[in-house]
Amino acid sequence: MAIKRRHALLVLFPRVFPATLGVVPAKQLKRFNKTKSLGEKWEDKWTGWFLKFFLWIFSKAFDLSEDFRENIKGYKANYVFKTETCSVVVSATFKDGDMEVHEGDIDEWDAMIIFRDAAALRATLKSLLLSGNLDILELMLANKVEVHGNVNCIFKFIFMVRDLTHSLGIG
Amino acid sequence: MSQNILNDLSPKGCNLTERVSHLRDIYFRAVPEICTERPCLITLFHLDNGLFHKERISILDKARAYRYVLENRTPIVVHSRAYDKRMKPFEFREAPLFAGSTTSKFKGVPLYPEFIALTLWPELLTISRRASNPYHITDSEAKDLNYEIFPYWIDTNILERTRERYYKENSKKVEDTKQLSEMKLFERLVFFLASKPKCISHTIPDFSKVIKYGLYKIIDEANNKRDETTEHSTREFYTAISEVLEGIIAYSQNLAAKAEELACKESDSVVRRELRDIAEINRRVPALPARTFREGLTTIWICWIAIHLENPNIGLSLGRLDQVLYDLFRQDIKNKVITIQDAIELICCLWLKIGDHVPALPETGEELFGGTGSNQAITIGGVDKDGKDAVNDLTYTMLRATELMKLRDPNLNARYCQGVNSKEYLKRLCEVNINTGATPAIHNDKAVIKALRGRRDKIKQARDYGVIGCVEPGSNGRFYGHSAAILLNLTSALELALFNGRHRHTGMDKIISKETGDPATFTTFDEFKTAFKKQTRWLIGKATTLNDNFGRVHQDFYPTPILSAFFEGPMDKGKDLIEGGATINASGAAIIGLADVADSLSAIEKVVFVDQECSFRALLDALRNNFKGSEALQRRLMNPDKTPKYGNDEPMADENVCWIVKLLDKTFGEKKNYRGGRYRVGYWTMTNHAAFGRLMKALPNGRKDHENFTSGITPVSGVTPDLTKALNSVARLPAQCLSSGVALNLKYTPDDGDRMLDNFAASIEGYFDDNNGARDGGMEIQFNIINRDDLLDAFYHPEKEIHRELLVRVSGYTAYFKDLNPRMKKEIIDRTEYRLSHGKMTPFDPIPLPKQRR
User: Fold this and answer.
1) Nearest-CA residue of chain B relative to A72?
2) Is cis: bond before B440, omega within 30 of 0?
3) How many angstroms separate the CA atoms of B746 and B809, rounded?
4) Distance, in angstroms, between B190 CA and closest chain A CA?
5) A129 phi/psi in degrees, rounded to 5
6) B503 strand-pairing partners
7) Closest Cα to residue B697, out of B486, B496, B487?
8) For B82-124, how does the pLDDT look when each residue is reduced to its tens digit (9 = 90+)?
9) Size of interface A-B (CB pairs under 8 A)
10) How far apart are the CA of A166 and the nearest CA of chain B, in angstroms?
11) How many C-beta atoms surround the C-beta of residue B146 within 10 A?
12) Which among B277, B285, B278, B325 is positioned nearest to B302, based on CA atoms?
């Protein structure tokens, strides 16, 4: 059952992939364009979509499941996910029992996760989707991730991701 | 004073009773279970009393919180259920001699949301299935933690309060900052670890007062002192002491009532009588003075539970129990109230109770540091405050209990004073080591007392030292030294010196510390030593600043009335332990990677500057490439015949290691901590030498990327073929620079001839000897007396039942081999093994480095 669900999610993934979701602010992209090959730029863009899609699914889960929504009842926090070069920057806001996903950075964040590069971000998301596994301390040890701000917010976030993947039969 | 009633010092006629064997079997069968009782009660109290929103939590607030917890926790007299490794419940009928437990579970994982319990948050749904040391948790407990407990502590645990106060970030600051703050260095894990976010611990309370006078008397003292002063904070302190002690008495009374209730329902007359005994004892102590050995043990146990409820048990230690309890023991034996066999049964039951919990560690923590108990040290033997022989019959009785039980906790430490303690006693310590394979650790009184005197402890205070956590000496019940406050990765200082302020783990594009020059341009070894010295001083500055900042946050949000009540100093000064109330104040730093750094310095001196066989640039290139293409150079660096190695009695190597310990002692010693005490330095590593080793790249001593570092103060494995020379090198180090203790880990081949015991004792005598003042003598030594083949079998076949209880000495504490992470297992397997019959190393081929999880 779990395998079937996972398979369905992966098959569904490219179909609902919102190709129009650009996530890199133009200013940052300009700086970044100077040093990256076309292939790398495409990979970064793809990764940004991937991340935003993942967070979008996550936010929808709160809408769809009352039980899952219980996790963010009264929870207020801002998260930023980005790569070191800012090729990918996505933020998520939890407020009033709701989750919103935005493109770009925000000034007042509680937790910021900086991935060494797009590959590290992809590997993290892949691990999450395939096994429900995200060990932030392990990623920090491997120097693939830098964490800023309140690390407890990150622990809570990982729990919620695992809660979701768990209920989807992943991991 | 030495007392001998025992005819047989072993005493071999005494064995495990049926009760203890049964309890011990359950202990090994049960997996740890997460306990939500304490976090639930403490969170409720904080909510009801508005403590989450206070800008400062007073000692009285905290005292009331702990009283609330003590009065409202479930009094458990008898456990009847636990979970096995398949997470299946099993029932049993426990018949303990002591009531109460640190958690509500048979073997619990206590959680402290004020500290690092939230690191378990991501794992709440998976923790019972994780590969390393899983914990049982019920769905409702996971829900309680997720919804009702953890959310309140997101911004209010010690780590976040410290970050908010001292290291608040915003987008601008993150973008602009190139130099990493000490908090960021800590979070990068590769520079140093700080213990304060996870505990106020690593100290020894004083139990002699409560045993002698009882808590009512101490409450009276506190009330009288309160009434004598008008100063608000002092009055608040004494009121807080009364509050928590009343709470402890209430808890013991609740246990007594529960035991009585169970006795009334019990049909078995023997069990009924035992429950009534428990009820009677707990009704009396710790409120009133203990009259018997068992009441003395119960007093300690109940107070110990209370201390755990206040603070996570990471190195909280029980001190010199053979001294504290000796009068009661002697009187009971003399009056035939108990026999030696009875005493051993009581001690065994207490040992099991002491091990009734394990520290909470997240999965990565288990991979890095897994296998550790809570390192509750007990100290036996040595000399008394007047310098006289303190080894007594209780010392031998405790040794026998330890020999029979072979448990990880408590961590037994034996003191030995040459010329004062008997040689029979030393031989007995060796015999217990042979029979258990790993315990007790043995401490040299003369060197330790000299080290403590060097830090200005008074002579009677120094003589009355107990061992804290792993190996750290501290005057019993009066020294608050938080001896594990900082765990410093010394190889990071070397790394920064080698790469001009950069670190290969964090990226060579970033300058982390100060630029101390490109070593390739250095023309003398002294220039490199200067660079290393500057980087070391910088790193120590960062580590101590962070520790002090955490300490100040403790002062505002984590007062410790319970620990303060059981300490010499706070009651006189009217001041909390963490405000500097203790008689002796200090902070401790443990150094990781000493031997690797020392050998690296010697390699640079010899190969680059003396022999000029290789340029510094070529050496740096070899390090960057992990010696790929430079295999000949690596062999040269590793070869003890060509490159001086610490542990071979060679002047160059020994001078370098001596220079390092002096540098560290001076630099740390110059720092005054937030309580007004000085920093003390120790060389014990727990499992951090494997954990830090995993993160670090190749070093000039020939060590390759990610290989383990060497433990404690031990010379690097495999390069010190001669036991005597190895011991001499260590014994030559100045004791005064090692005042926070050392762990010298040695592995001896078991069953090594008829004279094994004599040779064993002789090796310790030789190592401890000060050669008529020519040196200080070694401070501490600990052993694994296990065949390499047995360890290999346990490594490759952990599922075998015979390996379930295999006890090994890590670096400071003992652990069950099966619980250790693969890297740590390798480190123990690959330690130099000496044959005592000829004092030479047994050659071995290191096993391959286990693969990392990711």
Assistant:
1) B147
2) yes
3) 9
4) 8
5) -75, -35
6) B507
7) B496
8) 999 999 999 999 888 999 999 999 999 999 999 999 999 999 9
9) 91
10) 8
11) 19
12) B285
Longest dimension (CA), chain B: 86
User: Which pTM value belongs to this model?
Assistant: 0.93
- Round to whole Å and give the CA distance between B538 and B106: 46
Alpha helices in B650-722 (DSSP H): 651-669, 688-695
Amino acid at B451: A
CB–CB of A140 and B122 under 8 A?
no
Q: How many angstroms separate the CA atoms of B650 and A149, rounded? A: 49
Q: How far is B705 from chain A (nearest CA, A)?
A: 13
CA angle (B396, B398, B404) in 5-degree steps: 105
Point out the residue among B154, B159, B171 whose CB comes nearest to the CB of A109.
B171
Query: B697 contacts in A (CB within 8 Å)?
Result: none
Burial class (CB in 10 A: 0-12, 13-18, 19+), B3: middle
Residue A92, min C-alpha distance to chain B (Å):
15
Collapsing DSSP to helix, strand or coil, B539 comes out as: helix
The tokens 């639930």 sit on which residue? B40
First-residue to last-residue Cα distance in chain A: 12
Q: Which residues contact B800 (CB under 8 A, 6 or more apart)?
A: B793, B794
Strands B807-809 and B465-468: unpaired
Nearest to B743 by CA among B471, B338, B427: B471
- Compute the distance between CA of residue A124 and CA of residue A165 in angstroms, rounded to an integer: 14
CA atoms within 13 A on the CB side of B783: 29
Compute the radius of gyration of chain A from its Cα atoms.
16
Distances (CA, A) of A132 to A56, A91, A101, B63: 17, 21, 21, 42
Is A152 close to B362, i.e. CB distance below 8 A?
Answer: no
Mapping DSSP to helix (H, G, I), strand (E, B) and coil, where does residue B686 land? coil
Q: Is B91 helix (H, G, I), strand (E, B) or coil?
A: strand
Tell me the C-alpha distance between B236 and B56, whole Å: 14
Residues facing residue B357 across a β-bridge: B108
Residue B122 contacts A, CB cutoff 8 Å: yes
Dist CA B354 CA B303 (whole Å)? 12
Token pair listed for B517: 């020059």
**Which residue, chain included where needed, has tokens 């047995």?**
B790
SS3 A106: coil
Task: Inspect the interface and report whether the beta carbons of A163 and B157 lie closer than 8 Å.
Answer: no
* Nearest alpha carbon to residue A20 among A61, A53, A44, A55: A53
Q: How far apart (Å, rounded) are the C-alpha atoms in residues B67 and B246?
A: 7
CA distance B119 to chain A (A): 6
The 3-class SS string of B789-806 reads HHHHHHHHCCCCHHHCCC
Among B665, B470, B693, CA closest to B595: B693
C-alpha–C-alpha distance, residues B2 and B388, integer Å: 8
> Quick check: B362 contacting A, CB < 8 Å?
yes
Work out the burial of residue B724: count CB atoms within 10 Å of its CB; fewer than 13 is exposed, 13-18 middle, 19 or more buried. Answer: middle
For residue B412, the cross-strand partners are B378
Residues of chain A with pLDDT > 70, as a percent, come to 75
Contacts of A135 in chain B (CB under 8 A): 122, 363-364, 854
* Tens-digit pLDDT profile for residues A30-68: 454 455 676 777 777 888 888 898 899 999 999 999 999
Cβ contact (<8 Å) for A162 and B125?
yes
Specify the pLDDT at position A105.
87
Give the 3-state secondary structure of residue B319.
strand
Query: Which residue is it, tokens 């560290």?
Result: B664
Task: Read off the pLDDT of residues B617-650 as tens digits, 9 standing for 90 and up.
Answer: 999 999 999 999 999 999 999 999 999 999 999 9
Cα B398 to Cα B70: distance, rounded to the nearest angstrom: 30
User: What's the rounded mean pLDDT across residues A74-80?
Assistant: 95
> What type of residue is B142?
A
